[in-house]
Amino acid sequence: MIFTPFICLVLASLAPSAYSQDIIYNAEHNATTIVGTWSSGSKNVMTGAGFANPANQSFTYPKTTGVSYSFSDDGFYEIARYRFNGNGSEPTCITGVIGWVHGHYSLNSNGSITMVPLGDGYQQVQDPCAAVSNFIEDYNITETYVQWRIFQDPTTGYKLHLFQFDGAPLAPQFQVSTTPNMLPTTLLRNLPTTTTTSAGNGVKTQARRSLLQKKSNDAPASHLAVAVAATAGMVTMSVAALLL
Q1: Is the pTM here over 0.70, yes or no?
Q2: What is the 3-state secondary structure of the chain?
Q3: What is the pLDDT of residues 182-236, one digit of tens each?
Q4: Are 27 and 175 in contact (CB under 8 A)?
């Protein structure tokens, strides 16, 4: 069965009734275990050594945007994300974000998933319209997904559907491997002393930002900048075409 965005939204709207009671692990909603590696779309974004190098806070940039989650059978997770965020009021001010984080996860009895980072996650943000257009910052936010489902598609195989804290669905992810493709499940970079601020609901986030000033970061900055500029250019051409 193919699940359209409309069906995903319908499923999300049913979330309150679904996670108000203990989850039942069966073939109807969880056709296989969540353990393994999952990736969205063209599967170019993948967790593991080919995406992030936490030691120097760098990235190997995928060909396309997407997201990938990995889960181990002993309670560890890893997330790789690469995306562009649009700006409705300023179409050319497209923000590019690439990020990595890992930590411990728990499958709760009400059907939700809680993911608590180890503390060494980070992301790079490129915003051509901001005062600081390119920077790397710590990313260590406890994430809650109110429910999750695994269906078996006759064409693409197993698909993981995750629903965020507000019930909004993430892009479906396809099973890439039944064993998790992850970096070591320990702290992978030295962490400076930082202050923490509350992001609501008990979530703590790191307050440090580091500007991309070192030569080792020049290439990643340029790569993301080119990608953001190309995306903004396509948006501009699309708007111009509509006006002709």
Answers
A1: yes
A2: CCCCHHHHHHHHHCHHHHCCCCCCCCCCCECCCCCEEEEECCCCCCCCCCCEECCCCEECCCCCCEEEEEECCCCEEEEEEEEEECCCCCCCCCEEEEEEEEEEEEECCCCCEEEEECCCCEEEEECCCCCCCEEEEECCCCEEECEEEEEEECCCEEEEEEECCCCCECCCEEEEECCCCCCCCCCCCCCCCCCEEECCCCCEEECCEEECCCHHHHHHHHHHHHHHHHHHHHHHHHHHHHHC
A3: 999 999 998 865 544 434 333 444 445 554 433 334 444 555 655 555 554 544 4
A4: no
Q: How far apart are CA 182 and CA 242, in angstroms?
A: 44
pLDDT per residue over 139-179, tens digit each? 999 999 999 999 998 999 999 999 999 999 999 999 999 99
The two three-digit tokens of residue 229, written as one number: 């500029």
Backbone angles phi, psi at 14, to 5 degrees: -90, 0
**Residue 211 token pair:** 């500007």
